Amino acid sequence: MSRKESGGRAMPREVVLSKALSHLLRHSAEKEHLKISKEGYVNVADLLETRKVKSLKATLPEILEAVSSSNKQRFSLLYVSPENMEQGTEGSQQQQDVATSTAASEEKQKSATTHALSVNDKDASHFLIRATQGHSIKSVDTTLFLERLSLSDSKEESPATKLPDTVVHGTYHGAWPLILASGGLQAMSRIQVHFAIGPTVDEVFPNGRDAAPAKLEDKSNQIVISGMRSDAEILIFINLRKALEAGCPFYRSENGVILSEGIATGGDSPDTKKMVPLDFFDLVVERKVGLGVLWENGNVVQELPSHLAEKKNPKQVRGGGRGRGRGRGRGGRGQP
């Protein structure tokens, strides 16, 4: 089974496997008849038997390597020892109880993954795996394994628990007019909109706000940013405190991604969609061609030129070949 990158080169096997795992755990587990818990965990033995993974002839060591080598820490792993398991229904319940307990604590999640990767056990059925974020499967309750951010989070607390100073959403030229027209960021097919905690405004404007922003680097030099594609052309900076004060929920995933399903902005109608509205946008910056600030404090500073606004967004090629114009593409309008 071979896949190709946009440049026509064959993707390395480990990349193909990682993409397949991400797609299954985030989007298609139920379609593949893969049992997934409300915490997002599936049994690795069952995972290896799915059509998508089985076609790759993947092994348990390769799954473990995919977890440990993911540059964005896309996966969490849980080991349930034979001593803590029983056969049949009771064994399944034991796994469920362990998964529920672990998912409730970010610290437990990280230590559980570290422990699972250190275990010398060749039985795949003793391992559970889930995606750390990015789900569209409605039966998965992401609030069970995401840390909800609060205004009470103190600056004196550890960096891992305090409110992030920067919350930014990366998107593309073609998505920006749609975001403006819709009134904000919508999760679309995902459960939540994704945000990163960098780059900061100072990093985007290294020579000051009166100068042009730093342009995107060549793809080969781009750094990995959890929560945003590194080639994002437009950066939307969020006023997190204002959003939290207004009751808009924000969460932090195990791998540091900030997420929000937004709030209902159209009254009590059952058809009202949730979004992170424009009211919470502090600053919007175009950095691909160096236009700079497009939006600031509730006002349009400059329009995006039509030849950019009308561009189709890059397509994201996911495990099953699904792709669509997006901003970050996943989910269409503004989804990173």
What does this structure look like?
This protein is an alpha+beta fold. The protein folds into two domains: 13-143, RNA 2'-phosphotransferase, Tpt1/KptA family, N-terminal domain (Arc Repressor Mutant, subunit A, Orthogonal Bundle), CATH 1.10.10.970; 147-309, Alpha-Beta Barrel (ADP-ribosylation fold), CATH 3.20.170.30. It is built from ten helices and 15 strands. It has helices at residues 13-28, 44-48, 51-54, 60-69, 88-103, 106-118, 176-182, 201-204, 240-245, 306-309, and strands spanning 42-43, 75-79, 127-131, 147-148, 168-171, 184-185, 193-195, 234-238, 251-252, 258-260, 263-264, 274-277, 281-286, 292-296, 299-300. The strands form four sheets. The chain has a five-stranded antiparallel sheet, with no helix packed on it. The longest helix is centred in the N-terminal third of the chain and has 16 residues, at 13-28. GO terms for molecular function: tRNA 2'-phosphotransferase activity. Its EC number is 2.7.1.160. Keywords: NAD, Transferase. Pfam families: PTS_2-RNA.
Number of helical stretches of at least 4 residues: 10
Low-pLDDT runs: 87-91, 316-336
Work out the strand percent: 15-25%
Distance between the termini: 28 Å
Morphology call: globular
Assembly type: single chain
Share of helix, binned: 25-40%
User: What's the number of extended β-strand segments?
Assistant: 15
Count of individual domains: 2
**Name of the CATH architecture of the largest domain:** Alpha-Beta Barrel
Give the SSE order as H and E letters. Answer: HEHHHEHHEEEHEEHEHEEEEEEEH
Class by alpha and beta content: alpha+beta
CATH topology of the largest domain: ADP-ribosylation fold
Query: Roughly what is the average pLDDT, rounded to an integer?
Result: 83
- Biggest sheet strand order reads 5-8-13-14-15
